[in-house]
Amino acid sequence: MLDPKFLRNELEDTAKRLAARGFTLDVDHISALEDKRKTLQVETEELQASRNAISKSIGQAKARGEDTSSIMAQVGDLGAQLDAKKTELTALLQELNLLAMSLPNLPDDAVPQGADENDNVEVRRWGTPKSFDFEVKDHLDLGEALQGLDFKNAVKITGSRFIVMKGQIARLNRALGQFMLDTHTGKHGYTEAYVPLLVNEDSLLGTGQLPKFGEDLFHTKPATEEAQSLSLIPTAEVPLTNLVRDTIVDEAELPIKMTALTACFRSEAGSYGRDTRGLIRQHQFDKVELVQIVHPDHSMAALDELTKHAESILEALELPYRTVVLCTGDMGFGASKTFDIEVWLPAQNTYREISSCSNMKDFQARRMQARYRNKVDNKPALLHTLNGSGLAVGRTLVAVIENYQNADGTITVPTVLRPYMGGLEVIG
RNA sequence: GGAGGGAUGGCAGAGUGGUCGAAUGCACCGGUCUUGAAAACCGGCAACGGUUUACCCCGUUCUAGGGUUCAAAUCCCUAUCCCUCCGCCA
Q1: Is the shortest CB-to-strand distance from A63 to strand B under 7 Å?
Q2: Quick one: which of A284, A317, A285 has its CA closest to A179?
């Protein structure tokens, strides 16, 4: 959520900055609503003030034992007037709030201008794609041949875009998650967390999935009408970041660095026909998430650091990758700056996204009322939040299978994963 | 599943219809003292919104949403969460 002051005092400038990311702000509509809000709010508060004053004098008169009937007569239809104004004001404020909650974050000044992914800018490249002296297969052919990936049974049990993994491939998937988690907790200073996979509406509003993107999520159907619906997390960013919702943390506790390995669930509404083959786009996949809650002065440095943490996993696995900074038009809803890390996939002969690391600045913090106590004036101030995948386990599995394939269809186990595989060197 | 109790500032915890935005303690900030620190003492200290250059002033907020009343932290209803006892259970 943007600072409401932007919509009051810097509407034109805000509209310009949002236009850079392809979002059109209805300036006339908003300023009309704002004008109305201002007069309504002043009128309402004046009515409240006079009601409070009368009530107070009644209380004082009663305390002195005086007759209050003449003061009572002054009340008249004040209550009815107040109710009417209040109803009107509440509706207006709700409309404005929904509008504010639906606006994306402002891009950081350092983000390149652009319309779509073609305008993203590569910032670095690591490793060299291996040259194979045989025809490479994709992870689907390799996995099925090894009887490690079972798409047919997944369809039978649940439906498309789900997977059953078996044997050493299932273990490899588990090994990847464990390795990532151990690296981030052991080397990068993150605290491991076990978190709920089902979250409530407030959490989704806090991180920005709601009110706009509910259709991207799976929602539970409550047993009773009154019970609230819970939703499956699309990323551990939701529970991890919401840890600081409605809290004021001590500045000395910053930065807070959390990580979790969780399943993630995405409905993939609107992506029918895209990446239908294989593990790239699934309704359910494992991901190790990195979240940092930081002092506002340090969030850009923290983004660089967090991105490096994610990259280090690919380096340890010796998987070639490149890192791009997303242009204004390609960034996610809540991000002010985003690095995507893309891993080399030989079967597709291209780099594919495996991690997305974003500085949300105070966008989520304002929604969540996540604050710290500022040492300068001893007042609460909004925190900055960051998140990134470190990494998407399913896609990393794809990358390992494809990059480490041998001519005979076996898969060499990357060195760093062997301790997690009982010393196994080759899957086959 | 049955019976009962609770939710108040950063934290702990008073407050049961009327100058209550709310005692007190801790924490925090400023000061005195000290070579420095600690202790002690003195003072300050809720958030959000409106108006304003600013001070002031006004409004809202005691888990959330409704209701009663001239007036609600306080009374009523509903929801959520926590605790205690009984039952059941991995």
Answers
A1: yes
A2: A317
